[in-house]
Specification:
- By secondary structure, the protein is an alpha+beta fold.
- The chain contains four helices and nine strands, in the order E-H-E-E-E-H-E-H-E-E-E-E-H.
- Strands 5, 6, 7, 8 and 9 form a five-stranded mixed beta sheet that branches. The chain has a four-stranded mixed beta sheet with strand order 1-4-3-2.
- Strand 3 (37-41) and strand 4 form a beta hairpin.
- The relative contact order is 0.19.
Length: 134
C-alpha cells in the first residue's frame, strides 16, 4: 500500500466547505463523512479531512489558529498543465474562494493560489516535466 496523507483542517461550517469543494469537482468518501467531518478525496493517496472546529479540538491540546488571520500551512497541489491550474483556481474563485497571492510564472513553473471559505491557503502548481528531469 502506498503512503497516504490525510490533512486535517478545521472548518466553521462543514456544509459550506463541502459545497465549495464539490464545486471544484472533488468528491467525498461517505465512509468517513458525518456531521462532524467530511473526507475530501483529492487523489487516491491524498485526502483532506474537513473537521468542524469542536471536533478538531478533540485532536489537539493547542489553540486552533484562525486561518482567516494566520497562516499555519499552505496546501499545494500539482496540476498536469497551466490550463488545469487556471481552471481549478478559476472554479475556486467562482465558488466563493478568494485570491491568495499573485500568479507565479517562471516559464517552466506556473502557479496560482486561493483561500477557501475558512481562509486556508491552497496553491495549484504546474511544472514542465522536462525541467523537473533536468
Amino acid at each position: 500500500m502506498s503512503t497516504m496523507i490525510f490533512v486535517n483542517l478545521p472548518v466553521k461550517d462543514l456544509e459550506r466547505s463541502k459545497t465549495f469543494f464539490g464545486k471544484l469537482g472533488y468528491a467525498f468518501n461517505a465512509q468517513f463523512t458525518d456531521e462532524n467531518a467530511a473526507c475530501l478525496v483529492i487523489s487516491e493517496t491524498i485526502y483532506a479531512m474537513l473537521l468542524t472546529e469542536p471536533f478538531f479540538r478533540t485532536f489537539t491540546k493547542k489553540e486552533i489558529a484562525d486561518p482567516a488571520t494566520s497562516t499555519t500551512a499552505i496546501i499545494a497541489l500539482t496540476a498536469e498543465s497551466r490550463e488545469q491550474v487556471d481552471d481549478l483556481v478559476d472554479r475556486a474563485l467562482a465558488a466563493g474562494g478568494q485570491p491568495a497571492m499573485d500568479a507565479q510564472d517562471q516559464g517552466f513553473m506556473y502557479g496560482r493560489s486561493f483561500l477557501d471559505p475558512d481562509g486556508h491557503q491552497w496553491e495549484v502548481v504546474w511544472m514542465d516535466p522536462a525541467a523537473v528531469q533536468g
